[in-house]
Amino acid sequence: MYALALVSGVLLLYACTVHHFRSNYKDVNELLYETENLNNKPFLKAHLKNGDVCIMRDTWEVDTVRNVVVGKSVCYDYKRNFKPSDEQPISIDEVLIFETNQQLKKTEIGRIAALTVLAVGNVVGAISCQQNPKACFGSCPTFYINENDNFHYSNAEGFSNAILPSMEYGDIDALNNPPISESIFSLMMKNEALETHCVNEVKLLAYPKAEGEKVYQSRDNNFYLCENKYTANQVLAPEGDITALVSEHDMYERFSSADEQNLNSRETIYLNFKDLRNTDDLGFIINFRQTLMTTYFIYSMIGYMGDRVGDFAADMERNEKGAKMQMDGGGATKAKHSILKELGDIDVYVWNEKNEIWELQGGFHETGPIAFNHQILPLKTHTEGGDLKLKIVLNKGLWRVDFLGLTNIKQQVEALEITPDNIQVEGCENAEALAQVTTPDQYLISMPGDAYKFNFTLPENHTDYELFLYSKGYYLEWMRESWIKEKNLLKLVQMRTTPKMYLKAEAAAYKAYELDMEEQFWNSKIDAKTFSYHEN
Amino acid sequence: MLKHSHTMKIKLFIFPALLLLMGSCKAPYYVPATKHVGIERHGSHIIITPFEDEKVRGEFIAIDEKMFIILEDDTGSIISISRDNIKKIKIRYAQPKQYGWAVPLFIASTISHGFYLVLTAPANALVTGGVAGTGALDFTYNDKTIRDDEIQMFARFPQGIPEGVELIDIGRGSFQE
Q: Strand A451-457 and strand A22-25: pairing?
């Protein structure tokens, strides 16, 4: 689209051309000489000595024998009142100045071309989004340290799984913040989707740290103060050596395409670490996020409900806490959970040299395709010497991995919980919003396009903090017309009762979507952007 | 529940304001449409910014070695301005093209682009704003784009005030293209 704008801009340059179309002649011979080779005869004005003007279109001729200009003319007096014409030739002796004017043609071609190109681009974009709304209309509130960033650089996304009030939960995301130099820390929360966000609570979890230290979050929301960071000497994926790709926090990610036969298909990545300086209390660290596969399933599920989505939602709310989530043979929540369970985690294994087996250490899982998750898994296996082999097993086409590495855990730590001091909306403090996110039973309702700036005050007895965002709430997708057409209750039942079959049956449809939308979604990333804080 | 009326009010205000702003760029009636340029009977519309006094807007009547003579739009009176007192000149010889409508329309259409709105809305604003801006500014000259010896071609009397014509008698005839 930016290329489109540039092309349009070039066309605009054409549109800004200064027009040169008018000439004056005091001498009739000069007039004849200058106009004789023109393809289109110019309009002619004869400005007379008495102030009258006679205007001729392109039928005029100069009669040099009689010294007159002949042709059909319209004349006006010096006040520019119309003078009835008697079709008499104009005596050249009465003319002080001849004025010629070329017709202004195609003056709008540049502007019309620019608007046409833009309109075509907009229509193509709209059609693409209409056909694949799951890739264009995201989910959940997005949080930004730099309020001017777009969603590709979101620092956190809140409660991605909570698509109904009964599914509300608290979500913790590492902000991977740059070093803190001021006591005031601000976060911008945006609603960038066609959704209603209901935010119950937002607070910071702050962990003091010294230089060279880093705090990581585990899947079960424990926090570990760590030091040292080790990258693998070799990382092998099915497609080959990806060591360089996963050795930096640079937003260049490793991902694969889904299996075209079965969306429930696993792949393995092997990591070899050599000469680790310290093998005590190792933790496996990973930066990851999801592809659009989960988004596809969530939106498909809503689409299958069709015009009955409200009935399903009401049923689920009535049967809150999972007491009874059955309707027409398919509880939607259960359908989603069945699929997610089938797709699995990012499982981590360590090679036990002595027993010559891969030992499962645990797994990672966090829903959402936008913000990166920075998490740690404390390893149970102690290694002798400085070498270690690991493997991760993950579903094909579901995960995007930015970084893989090891660190030494110093200790488990407890968080300082910091609630916002104030919330600003368009630069103005909003006490009502603050009350809503700090009072348990109240909700801050954020509509598409809304943005809220949360300001927190950090304790001043430490110079630097590792910050995590805790956000609690739920969101409501806006039902779109195209989704209603996808109503298919049988597929909803299949999703819930036989997720394995569903993942096989849906593979072809997803592949068509994946090829198109993943490319569009992620290729719009702006490579030139520098993210120094990802280097920590 | 937090109300969003403030944001909505601003948005509701911006679009009509944009339309009004673009609409206000229309030139006086005696300035011809582009297809009539060359057969108009009046001088071009001129805006002169003097070093002293306020801007003068009106029909460009004539120019001589010392003075610009203008038939002022608001008062219908003849005003002479010394060349030495002129800071800026803008001449409009054809009616501007109105593309202000495209700005809100195109920006609003990007709502159908979902996430990509953050990219497509600024691109649309940039291009449509450029189109509207150049449309409003086209068909004009200023003191940087027109030579001193070319300016008189856009006056009602490029030959200068005709002999025997009193300045006070110069007005606008009944308008009829």
A: unpaired
